[in-house]
Amino acid sequence: MTIPRPHAQNNTKNPSGTALAPRSLGVALAVTAALLLSLPGGARAEPTYSFDTTPGKLPKTVIPVHYQIELTPDLASLKLAGMEVVDIEVREPTARLILNAVEMTLDAASIDGDAGRADIALDAASETATLSFAKPLAAGAHRLRIGFVAKINKFDRGLFFVDYPTDTGTKRMLSSQLEPADARRIFPCWDEPAFKATFTLTVTVPQAFLAVGNMPITREEPIGPDLKRVAFAPTPKMSSYLFVFTTGELERLTGDADGVTVGVVTTLGKREQGRFALDNAVKLLAYYNDYFGTKYPLPKLDLIAVPGGFGGAMENWGGITFFESRLLFDPSSNAETAQRGIFSVLAHEMAHQWFGDLVTMGWWDNLWLNEGFASWMQEKAAEHFYPQWRTWLNGYGQKQYAMMLDARRTSHPIQQPVADQSEAMTAFDGITYNKGQAFIRMLESYLGEQAFGDGIRKYMAAHAYGNTTTADLWQALESAAGKPVTGIAASFTEQDGVPLISAETHCSGNEQRMTLHQDRFMIVPGAARATPPSPRAWQVPVAIGPVAETSPAKVLLLEGNAEIPAGTCGEAIKVNLGDVGYFRVEYGPSSRAALVKSLALMTPEDRVNFIADSWAMVQAGRAEAPSYLALIEDIRSDDHRAVWDQVISTLTALDWLERGRPERPALQAYGRARLRPVFDRLGWDAGNANDEQALLRSRLITTLGEFGDSDILAEAKKRFAGFLDNPASLPTALRDPVTHLVGMSADRPSYDTLLALARRSTLTNERVRYYYAAAGALDPTLARATLALTLTDELPNTIVGGVINAVASSGEQPDLAWDFVQENFNALATRLGPSFADEFIAHLMTNFSDDAHAAELKNFGPAQATSGGRVTTARALETIAISADLKTRALPAVDAWIKAHNGARP
Ligand SMILES: [Zn+2]
Fold first, then answer.
1. If you measure from the C-alpha of residue 214 to the centroid of ligand 1, how many angstroms do you get, rounded to a whole number?
2. What is the pLDDT of residues 170-199, one digit of tens each?
């Protein structure tokens, strides 16, 4: 699954809760496995997979083998009538069958013909149905038949409906979203990943509709004048959360890849916008067939664009669903660079067709392996097909985000116990995805690309159509690489936290040596610092070498402390060369001074890593803010986008912390003075600029405008007026930043213009752009108008949370949004489903950085009604405390430095 993210122009600006940076190649770190300082000896608790011992709630005495499911959705009443016949294997005699069902009624259940009708008991809390029979079922094969009526939801759980605008009025379609545990909202089932079975689906839908499932259609026949019955071929053995059903007035664009039919499914009229995705899916399928060593096993793969209902993308086997703007590319409205995001999500979900779908984690405690792997594979594939995107370098922020979350007390091991489905939802977070990705990258680099790939191919072949734990993967990698994996892996996956490596050089005559000391990197707010964090130890592969050398770095496996030869006296020696390692580095005064002098000689990867670590030391209270500010003074105007991206992110975070303080204008003036020369080198118009320049230009326009650069704001308004007269006059690459600034500074007429544009468009990417621009309005009256819109049916559900959050993060008054949410809690919760209380409220409150609002969150009961909600609330409370702490601790030094500095400028 790809988790929904805030729109690019409306990231949460909280420095303790920043959204992900754009992704992007890096220098593969050559590993020489030089100094093996210690052998792995970490005790490992987790065994390889076994069905009988894998966690879960359902008894393992009965196993579903095959489901034959018939569904008849009613699009008007939003009821879903269903009938299923399930072939089951009873392992030991039992008079009771327990399976999952929620928010549905079961009208009849019988076993083996009419021989035994069951008593049915539904339990809403455990989301189960218990079927009791008069006498026990004997061990062996049986056939269960159940009739049921389920719901078609407004939010993205189970089967949901989407109303979307077209040139001929509003239309309704249906789609499904089941991960982690919502197949039970469509049909009664053993809804845990270890219960793999085959599925045959038959649906009755309007004749004008196209129906899409996991497998190709085998038969279609009319039922009366308006309906038709559509039957699909049986699936291979798979987990229930990978089931998919989408239907509506849809069309398909197809291509062939190694005998597999690849299709892009869209609403009518948008098929051609699927061309970019289709061409890339065909290439990716061949690449993955080769990489995984096992061919994609289904006869078709559909990529389905859903214009609302859910915000992410989901790897349903053979029928991947995407929020429309994550899949379709329209050259008349999308910036060329939008292709990067589309490719990345596509490569992620397609990697899951093997890693997740063909081989599936036994239980949600191993979710990180699915998501970490797919998140790593998406970058590897991008690097393969589009090396010019420099995916790893530009995506540096993904690891930074994970390390920020993982440095807290509310972090969790990426491999963690998961009790139930609300907790499973919270596992889909930045730590699971991004630490998983970073760890797998570090491991591949350590084992070598060939050996790592060989291990993956062994793992796929050994576990196809089955389930695993991470121990199964480590075994395959160890046997392929001939290197120990388990100890390294256990230290990064079974415990939380970020390693801190303190490095310092010292001279003895002309020779230099470096000492390395391992500790735990933590960001702990104020009072909590009195309680020391529990210590951690890791086995860390650490790449070390001189800054400007191209020869392979030395990699040592660091456990505890070490001292190594480090060139000649005064030579700049960089730790974490290539930015491949998952750890922070704190340099001593002498090694830091040498590196600062060599900043311009570093690769952009190393420069980003060095300045990001420098800022992290400020966040952790290990360095003063001016040390960072002085460092970025030496960044050149023509430096790589990723380097400027780090600087802009930090300045934006400081600006966010300064809200409401009299020193904010001085910080903004400093930001403008620092960033304007970078922008002036690029200018407004593309000229012969490449994509990297286009992306940097866009980010600079946004930031300079937010920092109050009057030239930039005036030019944005002028260009937007030109766009209204003649849309072609505004290049697609400039539409996001220009529209954002127009929205931010909007008066009533320009606000109304933005809404009119949103209402007129049938393209999801445009609608999203205009609604978010309107939501950024600083004028409180307009902010209130935007909030009121979220109660109407006008906005796609998918962006309602994002729009409320945009109101909270734009102006100086996040209270407007929080008050509104409290007043309208029930209406919004009904509309947005369980995640509104479990996740959104806590996330919204990270727009604050004061104790009073922390207390309000603590006292807001609905946010903590489930165990998942309590987890996200605890994390948000810590985020708020960290922001508050940074404000009191770092801002005075920042303000003093800027005062001295602005004064010093000519
Ligand atoms: Zn995923």
1. 17
2. 999 999 999 999 999 999 999 999 999 999
Q: Which helix (H) or strand (E) holds 408?
A: none
Asked if pLDDT for residue 8 goes beyond 50, the answer is no
Q: How far is CA 578 from the centre of its chain?
A: 24
pLDDT reported for residue 689: 60
Is the distance from CB of 307 to CB of 164 less than 8 angstroms? yes
| DSSP state letters, 350-380 | HHHTTBTTTBEESSGGGHHHHHHHHHHHHHH
The per-residue pLDDT for 40 is: 37
Residue environment code for 102-119, b if the CB has 16+ CB neighbours within 10 A, otherwise e: bbbebeebbbeeeebebe
- H-only helix segments in 85-232: none
Residue 312 alpha carbon to ligand 1 centre in Å: 10
Going from the Cα of 319 to the center of ligand 1, the distance in angstroms, rounded, reads 14
Is 349 among the residues known to form the active site? yes
Q: What are phi and psi of 451, to 5 degrees?
A: -65, -40
Nearest to 897 by CA among 595, 624, 649, 704: 624
Nearest in space to 26 (alpha carbons), one of 578, 724, 614, 822: 578
- Residue 454, phi then psi, degrees to nearest 5: -60, -40
The pLDDT score that the predictor gives to residue 10 is 36
* CA-closest candidate to residue 676, choices 716, 648, 650, 649: 648
What's the pLDDT tens digit per position in 312-352? 999 999 999 999 999 999 999 999 999 999 999 999 999 99
pTM of the entire structure?
A: 0.93
CA of 372 to the centre of ligand 1 (A): 8
The predicted pLDDT at position 114 comes to 73
- Find the catalytic residue in 84, 192, 324, 349: 349
Residues 708 and 711: their CA atoms lie apart, in Å, by: 9
pLDDT for 419 beyond 60:
yes
Q: Is the pLDDT of residue 28 over 60?
A: no
Question: How far does residue 353's CA lie from ligand 1's centre (Å)?
Answer: 10
- Please give the structure tokens belonging to residue 84: 């299923």
Closest by Cα among 698, 711, 765, 778 to 738: 698
For residue 240, the CA-to-ligand 1 centroid distance in Å is: 16
